[in-house]
Amino acid sequence: MSKQQRIVPCLWFDRDAEDAASFYTSLFPHARLNNVTRYGTEGQEITGRTPGSVMTVEFELAGYRFTALNGGPEFAFTPAVSFYVTCATPAEVDALWAPLIDGGQALMELDTYDWSPRYGWLRDRFGVTWQLTVGDAPQPVIPSLLFVGDQHGRAEEAMRLYTELFPGSTIDAVARYAAGEGDVEGYVKYGQFSLGGETFIAMDSGLDHAFTFTEAISFEVACTSQAQIDHLWEHLTAGGEEQPCGWLKDRFGVSWQIEPLVLQDYLQDPDPDRVARVMRAFLQMTKVDIPTLTRAYEGHSD
User: Fold this and answer.
1) DSSP per position, 34-64
2) What is the pTM of this model?
3) Least confident piece of the model among 33-42, 43-52, 180-189, 261-270
4) Could you tell me which CATH number the domain at 7-74 has?
């Protein structure tokens, strides 16, 4: 799936990005570590990071791509975004559960449930939450969004917005709460949707959860044109919040990074002067502007 994956979950750590990526890739099938980027001297007063220290680690689990970022202690993972992992057998669930729960905490105990012969929900030692189950799924790892608190009841609204914004997207399944099921009748008990061929889950929960969405998990969207960036930025920031360096919070509190595909090429250039110019320009942006990055890359001043 990695070659076609346009939307990549980004996990924000303080300093554990490299350890977490290595741990996860040791557990999952068809897993591997990919590119590692390091902090430079540009923007050190903003990042507070030592030049040469690890900034991001790209990795894959069962062919599904992630980015791990060492960003600082500001944000904490919550169960508002978890990763739904579908295994072929109960034994495979058990084999993943044991190391993931080590140093972590069960949110729903590993057991037999109405929807699965083997299911459990846990928080691992780094704070990331995982739902493990047995069955068939369109992809082995699926981001799951839980709409709670002030966002309770907005799962369907979110699915409709997201599928309208990304070409080739569909709402594939919606199961609603019935009367007497412990939530508001008609709210989304389980929703599955596809954004350009990539599967996501959305659910409402009216329980008294002491958490919500945070920037600790964001979704990187690689855009091939400024028009794509402008379109997503306009609609995702409506009712939300613009943030530096292509980050934003949408109206539901979900975090996104809207960035050009070419940015990674620029930042991986072997010429350190080019990389420094691009990073200097990038750190001054809110919405990312490709022509400005290109001018910086080519050494043209505005």
Assistant:
1) EEEEE--STTHHHH-PPTTSEEEEEEEETTE
2) 0.95
3) 43-52
4) 3.10.180.10
